[in-house]
């Protein structure tokens, strides 16, 4: 947008579906409303529309893995809690308790806690965000570092002394390109040095948590396995802790439900690039296993992405047509952009004047064979 902030945010709004050409545009696209919130203001009342919640079925792409969907509403201001209770039917329109119902949130919190407990037992892999191809595959580029995050948790109330995370590296990935990323264990965040192939270090939490955190991570080139070994070390014995009050993935006494959940969760991350010999449409899978102390390993679901090893190709032909009636130079442009896998979403055309920097002339136009006329400025070369 040539450093134009107004144009930048205008483009962001357009990407999100805003069709308004100006404030109060009556022809702009409007979403469906479920109801109106009546809000008090200094000079009366204002009806604030509340959009209809999204339909999960509209986002189900029939992928091999389960589609996870979350609808949520954000309440702001001094009456946000009351507005939520009104929304779920506990309070009436005037924020008074509905007859026969209690204002007690104990049952709601209990259900939330039970749901969180189930999530704590799960191990999940979050892979790179791919581009949806015409064939339904999720394509990732072959020349980029692909980010992966493995998330895990413990449903036990007993602290964990040792966590082992194991990730098999797909054969179509370059084992030498693996780089260890940051990790998080409860409320402990560990930053791995940039460009870390292997990582090993002790962190002294003796004063605050009563243990030394030992982190070891690296790749076994023989079996192509990336492993993290995370241990709580007893500062007195030098051994892995087996303590009912100290260790990893344990909630602090008196912590809120939200804090308890986050303190019993952890994650590790890494990046890896596709192998130079990997071909387009190669399927890259990732499945992680986590072992907490001596418990049986827990495996994640498999995350699949498809490789698009080659960049799109574009053929561009430019023909000078001379000058128009006003004396301006005119050029005829023809182009054809193709891709053998993920496809081409759009083409952006750049123009440079007098050998200067290129600037955007047309943005995200038709990717297939197309044609346009460019009119320049007299006295400049293009």
Tell me about this structure.
- By secondary structure, the protein is mostly beta strands.
- The chain is 12% helix and 37% strand.
- It has helices at 5-15, 80-87, 106-120, 206-209, 257-263; strands at 33-41, 44-51, 124-126, 131-132, 138-141, 146-153, 162-168, 179-185, 188-190, 199-205, 211-220, 225-233, 265-272, 283-286, 288-292, 298-299, 303-308, 313-323, 329-338, 347-351, 359-365, 370-375.
- It has a six-stranded antiparallel sheet.
- A hairpin with a 2-residue loop joins strand 1 (33-41) and strand 2.
- Give the topology string: H per helix, E per strand: HEEHHEEEEEEEEHEEHEEEEEEEEEE
The share of residues in helices is 10-25%
Inertia-based shape: extended
Number of helices: 5
Overall average residue pLDDT: 83
Largest sheet: 6 strands, antiparallel
Gyration radius from CA atoms, angstroms: 28 Å
Distance between the termini: 20 Å
Contiguous low-pLDDT stretches (5 residues minimum) are 114-118
- Walk across the major sheet and give the strand order: 10-11-12-7-15-16
- Structural class of the secondary structure composition? mainly beta
């Amino acid at each position: 947008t040539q450093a134009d902030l107004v144009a930048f945010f205008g483009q962001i709004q357009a990407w999100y579906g805003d069709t308004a050409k100006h404030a109060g545009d009556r022809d702009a696209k409007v979403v469906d409303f479920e109801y109106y919130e009546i809000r008090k203001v200094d000079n009366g009342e204002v009806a604030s529309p509340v959009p209809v919640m999204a339909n999960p079925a509209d986002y189900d792409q029939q992928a091999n893995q389960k589609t996870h969907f979350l609808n949520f509403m954000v309440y702001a201001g001094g009456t946000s809690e009351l507005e939520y209770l009104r929304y779920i039917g506990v309070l009436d329109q005037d924020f008074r308790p509905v007859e026969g119902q209690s204002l007690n949130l104990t049952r709601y919190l209990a259900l939330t806690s039970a749901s969180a407990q189930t999530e704590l037992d799960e191990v999940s892999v979050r892979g790179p965000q791919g581009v949806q191809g015409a064939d339904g595959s999720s394509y990732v580029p072959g020349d980029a570092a692909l980010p992966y995050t493995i998330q895990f948790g413990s449903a036990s109330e007993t602290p964990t002394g040792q966590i082992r995370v194991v990730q098999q590296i797909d054969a179509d990935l370059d084992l030498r390109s693996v780089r260890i990323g940051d990790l998080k264990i409860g409320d402990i965040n560990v930053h791995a040095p940039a460009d870390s192939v292997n990582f090993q270090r002790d962190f002294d939490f003796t004063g605050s948590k009563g243990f030394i955190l030992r982190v070891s991570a690296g790749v076994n080139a023989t079996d192509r396995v990336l492993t993290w070994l995370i241990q709580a070390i007893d500062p007195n014995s030098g051994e892995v802790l087996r303590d009912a009050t100290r260790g990893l993935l344990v909630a602090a006494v008196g912590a809120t439900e939200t804090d308890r959940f986050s303190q019993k969760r952890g994650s590790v991350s890494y990046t890896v690039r596709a192998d130079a010999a990997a071909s387009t449409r190669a399927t890259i899978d990732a499945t992680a296993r986590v072992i907490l102390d001596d418990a049986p390993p827990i495996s994640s679901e498999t995350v699949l992405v498809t490789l698009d090893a080659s960049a799109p190709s574009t053929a561009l032909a430019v023909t000078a047509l001379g000058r128009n009636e006003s004396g301006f130079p005119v050029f005829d442009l023809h182009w054809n952009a193709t891709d053998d896998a993920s496809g081409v979403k759009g083409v952006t055309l750049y123009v440079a004047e007098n050998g200067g920097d290129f600037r955007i002339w047309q943005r995200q136009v038709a990717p297939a064979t197309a044609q346009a006329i460019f009119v320049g400025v007299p006295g400049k070369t293009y």
